Amino acid sequence: MSGSKFTGNKNVGLGLNGVVSPDPSLIHNNSFENNKYGIIVLGPSDSEIKRNNFYKNTITGIESKGKFKGFIENNIFSENGSGILVTEESSPHIEGNTITPNQEVGIVIEANSKPYIRANTIQKNQIGIWVLIPANPSITNGNISNNVMDIRDWRDVCELMVTTVEKETVTLSVFGDFVTRMKVDWGDKIEDDYADYVFEALHDYQGNGTYKIRVQLLDSAQKWRTSKKCEAEIKIGN
């Protein structure tokens, strides 16, 4: 498919607007304007979507779903709701696109998707790239800048800070993104608690010594499996 213009569609393909692409398809040098969705690509597929223009589509320019593993390259996404939505188990190669400016997110990555994102220009969106658990993208190179927030990663992150407040009392601060439960091994005692973003706790050690503090983040979205671990060493006394 080449040289076509799709505009103002409201009920095309699965009740969604734009184009629903079967396998295989070559979608090159087209224009998708003022649709609800520009293109919805259903997997399994290795379609190529290259050098197209996506403009003012109200939800997103491209939705990649199913097990789509094709190529989204050198397209322009401008003034859409979001540029690209990658969902379900799709793993597209997203490279060399210009995604600027869109009303919400440049690229949304969710569900079990594993896209390869390389050398894109993503600017002047509310969020440049938004990663929702348990998605696992590969993001390299590219110009991701001048968005209100460049990357919002809702996968769990464990950043551990330990400070000595008094001689034998330690304050533990853990910054976890989308954390729902936390297990802390203080080195002399194990505690289990719920947390939300920032977890802080005080612990009193009974004697001097060197203690290793270990933290596990447990995620309800992953059936309470450990999503991240971090540790620090603290010395009490001389």
Provide a descriptive summary of the structure in words.
This is Right handed beta helix domain-containing protein. Keywords: Repeat, Ubl conjugation pathway. The protein has 238 residues and is mostly beta strands. It has two domains: 5-153; 159-236, Immunoglobulin-like. It is 0% helix and 53% strand. It is built from no helices and 27 strands. It has strands at 5-7, 19-21, 26-28, 31-33, 37-42, 48-50, 53-55, 60-65, 71-73, 76-78, 82-86, 93-95, 98-99, 105-109, 116-118, 121-123, 127-131, 138-140, 143-145, 149-153, 159-164, 169-175, 181-185, 190-193, 198-204, 209-219, 225-236. β21 and β22 form a beta hairpin. The protein is elongated and about 75 Å long. The model is unreliable at 12-17 (pLDDT under 50).
**Which strand order does the major sheet show?**
1-4-7-10-13-16-19
Beta-strand proportion: over 45%
Number of helices: 0
The count of domains is: 2
Radius of gyration: 23 Å
Q: Segments where pLDDT lies below 50 for 5+ residues?
A: 12-17
Helix-residue proportion:
under 10%
User: What order do the helices and strands follow?
Assistant: EEEEEEEEEEEEEEEEEEEEEEEEEEE
